[in-house]
Design goal:
Blueprint (H helix, E strand, L loop, with lengths): L2 H9 L19 E2 H10 L9 E3 L4 E2 L3 H7 L3 E3 L8 E3 L2 E6 L5 E3 L8 E4 L9 H4 L14 H11 L3 E4 L7 H8 L1 H10 L1 H26 L5 E5 L3 E2 L2 E2 L3 H20 L5 E5 L8 H6 L4 E3 L10 H8 L4 E6 L4 H4 L2 H15 L5 E5 L9 H14 L7
Parallel strand pairs: 4-9, 9-10, 10-13, 13-14, 14-15, 15-16
Antiparallel strand pairs: 1-3, 2-3, 5-6, 6-7, 7-8, 11-12
Helix pairs in contact: 2-14, 6-7, 8-9, 13-14
């Protein structure tokens, strides 16, 4: 099978020739800069300066040489990140396209949220706020030609836009997490006004993007983290009353404009929300954080495996950074046994690969997947 045929079969709940593998198709399934450099060296590849996908999370776009080395089944169609501007000439502080200030602590790897510009705003203030321009053509320049070439001249499955793509996280970053979660209970009119603004911007962004390349996509990416390690951030009642309707609206808008499968990235313990995700059109859940409460792979497959696909699964909290290569292989074996029968599984790490992951462990994971992920699967 070609890479594209393999992916399409798996995402249609059919068994292809082997389990598809992802690394680098989105900004939450890739490598941090240090991990990227270490992996290229372990593969015997010469050093290369990559394109940064996210300054905040220090993750990079993987180059074609590395993707081919690992035999990855996907290629990304990223649009350009929003422009950012430095703050007070400090290289460790910047303001992103939404007006949120980020700062890297001394000696830190990542940038942390330093200032939420709408922390003290009211509904009337949203009218005059400097929102990002969703129709900025610079973010899409040359993308259609890239998409056409990848679709016609390669056999890879195409994923896009691979970054941003949500509204819940944007809202709390603009407002501040504690204040926004309080608003959900005490100031629903402000929450609805804020979400309305952001969702409308996202719809315009997706509309421009999908009008340009939607016909070439196999998977379209959206993201919003609604959970932590032991459960959702908000009650089911609040989720269903406030957040879910906006998700349903956005996802329907996307699906009206392309035939791609909808991949939803939501970290943490989301098992109790999967029925809702399926109801609003989610085809694939990522990253399948198996270390979180209620996220056992075998249980997820048994309960939801005929209605949703799973993408990810390789534990990045313990196994990849701290396990041996043998333990990593055992983890991959287990995931394939539990999630791959009948198709519906794409193997990859749970979120981005961090600098503390030995590259040998990552190579062991993908090597083992090529061995044990062949259909028909052995017990």
């Amino acid at each position: 099978m070609s890479h594209r045929e393999r992916v399409r079969a798996a995402l249609s709940h059919q068994e292809p020739d082997r389990v598809p593998m992802d690394l680098g198709s989105t900004q939450v399934t890739t490598l941090t800069l240090r991990a990227y450099r270490a992996l290229r060296a372990a593969c015997g590849l010469s050093p290369r300066r990559p394109l940064m996908l996210s300054t905040v999370f220090q993750v990079v776009r993987l180059d074609e040489e590395l993707l081919q080395y690992l035999d990855i089944d996907f290629r990304p169609l990223f649009y350009r990140p929003m422009r950012r501007r430095p703050s007070a000439g400090n290289a460790d502080t910047f303001i992103d396209g939404w007006g949120i200030t980020w700062r890297r602590p001394r000696g830190g790897l990542y940038f942390e949220l330093a200032e939420s510009p709408l922390a003290e705003a009211g509904v009337d203030d949203l009218e005059s706020y400097a929102w990002p321009d969703p129709l900025n053509p610079d973010r899409l320049a040359g993308l259609r030609e890239v998409a056409r070439r990848l679709h016609e001249e390669t056999d890879y499955a195409l994923v896009g836009p691979g970054m941003e793509g949500g509204f819940f996280e944007d809202a709390w970053m603009l407002r501040g997490l504690e204040r926004f979660l309080t608003d959900l209970l005490l100031d629903p009119p402000f929450v609805h006004a804020l979400l309305r603004r952001i969702v409308d911007i996202r719809k315009q962004m997706f509309g421009c993007y999908l009008d340009l390349v939607g016909e070439y996509l196999d998977v379209v990416y959206v993201a919003d983290d609604l959970a932590i390690q032991n459960g959702p951030l908000l009650s089911h009642a609040l989720y269903r009353a406030i957040v879910k309707p906006y998700q349903q609206e956005l996802y329907a808008f996307i699906k009206e404009r392309c035939d791609a499968k909808l991949l939803y990235h939501c970290c943490g313990s989301v098992g109790s929300l999967i029925d809702d995700f399926i109801e609003i059109g989610v085809d694939i859940i990522n990253p399948v954080q198996v270390s979180a409460e209620g996220m056992r792979a075998d249980w997820l497959k048994q309960r939801y495996g005929d209605r949703i696909c799973f993408w990810g699964g390789i534990d990045t909290q313990r196994v990849l950074p701290y396990g041996t290569a043998r333990e990593v292989r055992r983890e991959v074996d287990r995931l394939v046994r539990e999630l791959a029968p009948g198709g519906g599984f794409v193997l990859g790490p749970v979120h981005n690969v961090q600098p503390d992951v030995p590259p040998e462990n990552l190579l062991a994971a993908y090597d083992e997947a090529r061995i044990v992920g062949r259909y028909p699967l052995t017990s």
